[in-house]
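### Sample
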Amino acid sequence: MKSKRLHQIVKTFLEYGLDELVPKHLLPWYVKLGKSALFWLRNKHKDKPKAVRFRLAIESLGPVFIKFGQMLSTRRDLLPDDFANELALLQDQVSPFDGETAKQIIIDAIGEETFNTSISNFELTPLASASIAQVHTATLLHEGVEKEIVIKVLRPDIESVIHADIEVMAYFAGFVAKWLSDGKRLRPKEVVNEYRKTILDELDLLREAANGIQLKRNFSQGHDYDRILYVPEVYSEFSHKNVLVMERIYGIGVGEVEQLKANNVDMQLLAERGVQVFFTQVFRDSFFHADMHPGNVFVNATNPDDPTWIAIDCGIVGTLNKEDKRYLAENFVAFFNRDYYKVAQLHVDSGWVPRSTNVDEFEFAIRTVCEPIFNKPLAEISFGQVLVSLFNTARRFNMEVQPQLVLLQKTLLYIEGLGRQLYPELDLWDTAKPFLEDWVKEQMGVKAVYKKVKDNLPFWNEKLPEIPDLVYDYLQAGKENHQAQQRLMVELNQQSQQSQKRIILSIIGGSFLISSGVMFTTHLIISGVLFAAAAIFLRQSLKK
């Protein structure tokens, strides 16, 4: 299957003239010879730009490559703008597989009896069809109540197809890394490995179910921000690795701007809430939906003056640890204040760039990139592009790739793009700055100390009765350690004195032995006495 698929991919690449992407001087001699032969497949799309041909080739290779192209479109730090823009046009709509097959997959997963008693009105024609799975509508009898649901079903045999395609991608990545002039900067092997992890995670719908449940819980806690995002309910008792059952939602696609305007939705509020959704997920929860493209985001416009975002498809999520979260927040605030030295120092302190990095040079590089941006009106500044520029600059100083930051960058670009599409005058900086400043104060001020004490009170309360025993044990151990140290010091002192005596006796015995040897030929008796004395002293040194 791998060789057959490889042949198909090579054929597609040649028919779209993608061999032209490799500079001629880097091509091996046998490739150059092959290109001049009659059997070499010629470019059938010479009238189209290279970026367009690349996108069309990816699109024609099917679901796995389409998904890869979508992910690649977010890596603007790796691709030229024309290629990134073309790949962003890839749609996540592919031909569906047979509805009866989907129904049988569901029955095999949840059991025929459960299917017959709990699920009705199953629609064989899918509501939507994507790269890895498709979605069917149905009705679920749950706790005596009928509820409208959607059932997400993985494509049959998709896992074997994905593994085969990834192997081929890895092969081409090695070729690009070796022969393409920009191979090192593009890091094709790392990109394919990143894609491998992402897409294999998406093959486990139980993981997606758990992510959805967690995200819903995070936005169901009664906070002012919690009503700005709705996540459909997941029915985990009916879900399996290849089948996901969840609540059906009704909303307007966030990309359907004209429809939203026709419903008199407050577009400015909707755009600002998108920004709040992002920063709340990242900095409050450290758990963010990392695939918020237009196909996964809808709007509940029931109350146009109070619109709510709806997020589906939680297959890809990002997380940040406390250190990354704090450094990011401080980075953003420093950027708002144009404190480039602090930005540079934070990158060093966080370990994102080597400790040996010259902070002054790093600051100058960041200033060079960012000052021209800040000369524009705030409304014209792309927050996402600033982040991309920062990462690109840091990479010149050997910044290690941080997977969590790549997902963050991708998500921010999505959110900002959606926000500006909804409300072009959106000032993301102005919207985000108060949120970030308040968050930093909460994390580093009196509130942070109080919260930490409050969070640790149950633990301290549990350990409080043990404290007297722990103190006694500590003091007892300290006393015993002190006594043991004193004994050890006495022993060491005695051993030192004995060593000194052995050395002195050995020196005296050695001197007598040498003198005995010297006197042996002239004064035999004296020599004998000296030899006897040497033997006595050397024997005493050995006894000690």
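The chain has a mean pLDDT of 77. This sample (Probable protein kinase UbiB) is used throughout the tutorial notebook.
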